[in-house]
């Protein structure tokens, strides 16, 4: 099971050891970038607010699952999925609708999204390896 977890970049969640702990960020980036093709398909078929909304819901679902179902899911850093979706949405909004972007409290939204992750990071940083 260990090599499967490493191959799928799920070494932080699945049991079986970690080939190199320092690669945790690569696995997080890999999983976050899986959202991008989904967002692009939704943007092209529907519209960009829907794409950002669906990707944000995926991040929120990850946060809820980690909080309510299995604390090991915090190790996938689900709030980063939400932050990625919102950052992509902010970039699109600033380019396409600067009038709307000027009225959105981006800093407050970012702080609310980062709060769940900052709470769990303290416990992850303190755990023995």
UniProtKB/TrEMBL annotation:
<feature type="transmembrane region" description="Helical">
    <location>
        <begin position="75"/>
        <end position="94"/>
    </location>
</feature>
<feature type="transmembrane region" description="Helical">
    <location>
        <begin position="20"/>
        <end position="43"/>
    </location>
</feature>
<keyword id="KW-0472">Membrane</keyword>
<feature type="transmembrane region" description="Helical">
    <location>
        <begin position="50"/>
        <end position="69"/>
    </location>
</feature>
<keyword id="KW-0812">Transmembrane</keyword>
<keyword id="KW-1133">Transmembrane helix</keyword>
<protein>
    <recommendedName>
        <fullName>Acyltransferase</fullName>
    </recommendedName>
</protein>
